[in-house]
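User: Sequence for Porin family protein below. Tokens please.
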Amino acid sequence: MFKIFYASVALVALTAPADAQNVDWTGYYAGAEIGAGFSHPGFSGGNVVGGSDFNDTAFVGGVFVGHDWQSGQFVYGGVASFDFLGFHSQTAEDPIFGGKTNSYTYDLDWVASARARAGLLASDQLLLYGTAGVAVTRIKTSSDLFIVGADTVNKTRVGGAFGAGFEYAFAPKWSFKTEYVEYLFDKVEVANSIDFKPRFGTLNFGISYRF
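Assistant: Structure tokens for Porin family protein:
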């Protein structure tokens, strides 16, 4: 995922025109994004099952709005985003004895975030930046334990988000971005001593219009 991100930065830097127009980065903007998500939660409480049993890669997509201020080569501001996550329910089974098993499922549908971002202009048109803030997601988990029975947990969790990206202004009002953001959240307890620690990343490609 990081190779794709760095290759995109290098490609834009090499293809940026020498006579780049002077872009004013101050103002409101809105846009849409699509990309890939990489879910890699932690899991504890199983005998054989571990976090890697619930890893998933999926399509993600959503919208974002924000505002920037420009001071010389420095650009800073805030952005809010909402993305749908295509992670399907991942199921893993833990053998107990005599052919009996405990089973667990894990599912994520969406994530919203409010983040600050700040960066430097490599040229009038190319902004390199870092971003960090808070995020909210809905986590659906379930367990079916041989001794205890079945249980389902549906929790909203608030966590953190951090990442980096670049944005390239290809027209006075339009820009393209590539951005990787990592999300992490507090654990969700499914049953006694059994819990998930949600964590995933998104690599998005977006286009925005600056008002």
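The radius of gyration is 20 Å.
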